[in-house]
UniProtKB/TrEMBL annotation:
It comes from the Eukaryota. GO terms for biological process: carbohydrate metabolic process. Coiled coil: none annotated. Residues 7-168 form the Spermatogenesis-associated protein 20-like TRX domain. This is SPT20 protein. The gene is Spata20. Pfam families: Thioredox_DsbH. InterPro entries: 6-hairpin_glycosidase_sf, 6hp_glycosidase-like_sf, Ssp411, Ssp411-like_TRX, Thioredoxin-like_sf. It comes from Anthoscopus minutus (Southern penduline-tit).
Amino acid sequence: PSIPRHTNRLINEKSPYLLQHAHNPVDWYPWGQEAFDKAKTENKVIFLSVGYSTCHWCHVMEEESFKNKEIGEIMNKHFVCIKVDREERPDVDKVYMTFVQATSGGGGWPMSVWLTPDLKPFVGGTYFPPEDGVHHVGFRTVLLRIAEQWKENKDALLESSQRILEALRHTSEILVRGEESPPPAKEVMDTCFQQLSRSYDEDYGGFSKSPKFPTPVNLNFLFTYWALHRTTPEGARALQMALHTLKMMAHGGIHDHIGQGFHRYSTDQHWHVPHFEKMLYDQGQLAATYSRAFQISGDEFFADVVRDILLYVSRDLSDQAGGFYSAEDADSYPTTTSREKREGAFCVWAAEELRTLLPDPVEGATEGTTLGDVFMHHYGVEEAGNVDPMKDPHQELKGKNVLTARCSAELTAARFGLEPVQLRALLQECRQRLSSARARRPRPHLDTKMLAAWNGLMISGFAQAGAALAEQGYVSRAAEAAAFLRTHLFDPDSGRLLRSCYRGKDNSVEQSTVPIQGFLEDYVFVIQALFDLYEASLEQGWLEWALHLQHMQDKLFWDPKGFAYFSTEAGDPSLLLRLKDDQDGAEPTPNSVSVTNLLRAACYSGHMDWVEKAGKILAAFSERLQKIPITLSEMVRGTAVFHHTVKQVVICGDPQGEDTKEMLRCVRSVFSPNKVLMVADGDSAGFLYRQLPFLASLERKDGKATAYICSNFTCSLPVTSVQELRGMLS
């Protein structure tokens, strides 16, 4: 690489996204007091650019505009320019994205917003091309017009920004109105099911035509709906919708058949051509969802997909200290000599390349059949490429193939006169060969930032998979990551979580000069992870830490007037709004997950005020839950758990005894949306016994491991038969 001609102050940051812009000719500042003071002193507009390191259009805007010397000069002359990594600072991103969506009707990244020196937004958008075109205004023109307006009409802009802020403050309020109580579970669940059912794609699964996102929150809701309506036609349809969607996703190009894991989303209806970035939060949630699909169906297909996801994360997104990295980029260099990156270059194949890699004749198949013939037929490979030009506007995938399983193993085997078992072995051999070939290509950029929230989601994925598949190695990996969080993303002096840490030089783990404090989502997803990890490992230390963090979350984020949790804590003057997320996105809203966390916390601690808090969250979101529950499907699930009362499944026995292990395997193999698991091992000095005195009254029957199903700390008759326990759970 040539010596960079420019270096700005982002060179001192840790975020991979900010470092990508450290050699732009733009005089970038990170979000902070230095930039705010400069804007006030020089009376300049702030240009705020928000993105993330694996964002395709962020790369495009950098190449076209932020690396352009002339545009850089305009930016430096008229504006104080601030760059924000939205994954580091979701609080800043959310405030200004709320503004952009309200004023332009859309949103996305890169986000471009112009602010007054006191941080109030007055103009915003997303990606801007550098120059004017027939149907659009270019970035250069926008910059010059705003600079002119600030000079000529500053007072009008200031007045406008104040009005916009007041309107946003009013419309974004979520609070309890009057004497609202939690909405009734049946109506809310039925409405959510009907809304999902209407938007469901009968052919390919999923809940839209295109683009198509994995939406684990919707699938988890459908599993819960099925569990509570097993004997009804609606229950059967809910299960069919969820399982069919998961199968179609796993067969499609959104699933990386060679390198494992799932891409971000599909650009088409068929789950075929993805947007190729891979995000940690998708892998964590999908591992948990496919684990539930296996629990419910017993179909090994789903267990294999779980193993596939966790193999990818263990190999490609794992830090040697135990944490998980954030993402892999969509763009990469097609070859080691390429000058330009292309989206999907690491993952796609030309037919000719496959024939060269898979020339071997197949024994026992129709005469003249090669491995390439079999593989290309099964994965829908075409000589001229299998990507619809309409889904490839920049011609980056021309002549290339995105692998998608077009046939069942049985159909492909029949086509070539093979047995299905033989075919599966051949396809496995082909995939391994292509994996070796792909390893020689330049890899996409890896975002080695480690976030508490996303690590929490991934710990849940490993813990739930370990429990459902009875794979102790997955539970151990979850525990390793939880220990990493406690070492690197938790401050024992203050008892608080930190948001992020980073892979440093020599693979060390580094923290930024001023660590970013954890947000609501960090607490919520880590607490959920620790409950999942306790149920998979029975290590009570994880439970103790989870309850400590729940108390801290209450202290930092609870809204005592309007109820529910704010996304950010009070006291940051640079944040104009304290918001509560009101819609599930790529991740569920933190308040939604908090409902089930609070109910679980109450079961493990006996603190019934946490049940009351869960009810208050549901009351705060009551209107939205009753009108458009599809936007909060995770909270709808929480509503069902709240109204159906959580079952405490208590196993009395020696955790190392075979009879106890058999009962635990039974509990973990059954999908039950409103259960918590605990083991009463007789250690009266242990954490659980101190929290829950009623455990001391439960005993083993006839010296055998014994199960009790308790509700509000009142227990059923003892059960020693695994079959009887299975019946009670389902």
